[in-house]
Amino acid sequence: MSAVTAVKKFVTDLVLWTCFAGGLAASAGAGAVIDDNTQKNIATGVGAVVALLAGSRIAKKPKIKAFLGRPGTLWFLFLFNGGTAAAMYFTMDGIKGILAAAMMGVVSLGAAGGLVAGRRKRAEAEAIVSGRA
Does this model's pTM top 0.70? Predict the structure, then answer.
């Protein structure tokens, strides 16, 4: 890999991770910094979208994708996010609690889908190896 390519990759990764961390910080900390309700809601929403877009780009990188596809990681995501969704639903008031629980539930269901898909792939591979296919 040439020096220019290495620098370009480094800068790209730095920008992605900075956008991800900044988006999370904006969505979580807007209430502590901004007094106006409308501006606070806009900052929270924009921060969440920036973090989501940057995070989805980061998740496509081979090392991160391999880590997220491991059964242990998927089980953790499924159980942790499912439990957090239930806790958010019962502890947060109004629409914020419902939306937060729904989003965490979506992540939990996505991890469950990854577990089911991985199990099917392993079963198919075992069938091919054993000659049952």
Answer: no
